[in-house]
Give the backbone structure.
Amino acid sequence: MYKTKTAKKYLWIIISVFFCNVFSVNAQQSFVHGSVRDSASGDALIGVIVRVGNGGTATDLNGTYNVAVTPGDVKIIFTYTGYKKDSINVNVETGKSVERNIKMTNNSKELSLVVISSGRYAQILARFLFRSKC
């Protein structure tokens, strides 16, 4: 009986130390949150990739993001198709949450001519176009 009580006692000590460590690690987590919008129209941008180190997230339907970061100086990179890549540096204190709203600039370019071809249809279309110009 003595061995069983001692084993249970040590088991409870190990479990409580484990949970104390888990909760203390979560308490040290810091966050950066905010929204990403188009600089011209102010519309929310959905699906912007927000990268921090090896991790990251994407903006939701409202253009907002929330990413966990390590405390200290953090570089956050924002990428989205058709927009210029943007990055910010943020200093985050331990256990704090910092808000950073971003406006991304459109980087699209207009094309003067777009040609789409698809097998046999393209040949017929080319004959039609060249005949009408002659």
About this structure: The beta strands are 30-38, 49-52, 55-58, 64-69, 72-79, 86-92, 97-99, 102-104.
